[in-house]
Write a structure and sequence with these properties.
By secondary structure, this protein is an all-beta fold. Helices cover 0% and strands 49% of the residues. It has no helices and 11 strands. Strands 2, 4, 5, 6, 9, 10 and 11 form a 7-stranded mixed sheet that branches.
């Protein structure tokens, strides 16, 4: 079984940067892709970014493209989400999720493993 734990959230001013980490245990990390999702109060959980099982392919939501970078290190069982030029609308709980499928999914329902989330708050 796979467990995911997010860390790195906090309070940052608009225009600032944060890096979120996702530590994995159990299973074989190289066998599943990692997605980052976020959910703001009163909003549905939305796709942010995905990195493939082998870490060679990435995709991003249009709203974060050019500002966020997802990565995956299969030797350290760790994935990260580097966030720059943060905006108040980026404020949300950010979740790390795992998917064993070779198909790239943007919908949260297709991901099998989830962390508990980490809060990111961007002040104006």
């Amino acid at each position: 079984q796979v467990e995911l734990v997010e860390s790195g959230g906090g309070l940052v001013q608009a225009g600032g940067s944060l890096t979120l980490s996702c530590a994995a245990s159990g299973g074989t990390f190289r066998n599943y892709a990692i997605g980052w999702f976020r959910q703001a109060p009163g909003k549905e959980r939305e796709f942010v970014a995905r990195v493939s099982r082998g870490a060679g392919i990435t995709r991003y939501a249009e709203t974060v493209k050019g500002r966020f970078t997802i990565s995956k290190d299969n030797t350290k069982n760790t994935a990260t989400l580097q966030m720059s030029s943060l905006k108040p609308e980026d404020t949300a709980v950010y979740y790390c999720a795992g998917d064993r499928s070779a198909v790239s999914h943007a919908d949260a329902a297709r991901y099998r493993y989830w962390g508990q989330g980490t809060q990111v708050t961007v002040s104006s």
